[in-house]
Hints:
The chain is an all-alpha fold. The protein contains 3 helices and no strands. The protein has helices at residues 2-19, 24-50, 57-83. It is rod-shaped, with a radius of gyration of 29 Å. 7% of the residues are buried.
Amino acid sequence: MLLFVFVAIAGGLATGAVMAPFGPLTAALAVPLGGSLCAALAALVVLRLRGPDFVSDADRDAQTDALVAGLRGIADHARRRDAAPPERGSAGRHVA
């Protein structure tokens, strides 16, 4: 995200420098447009560079669901272990 900010600032300054000969008002009006265009182009470049390795929201949801299922399994195992009666001859303490 910080990359896009720097690209937008640099693009705006470059646009202002190019448009300065046409007058200060024209340059001032062109600076935000040039900066926004440069930031949009930088976003497209980053998107293109990520390519097929980019993880979609559906993939992240599937990974999260798998992680939550694993954690729930661990929690269920711990609950069953804690609910079980203590072994004969033990002091009633669980040592992991």
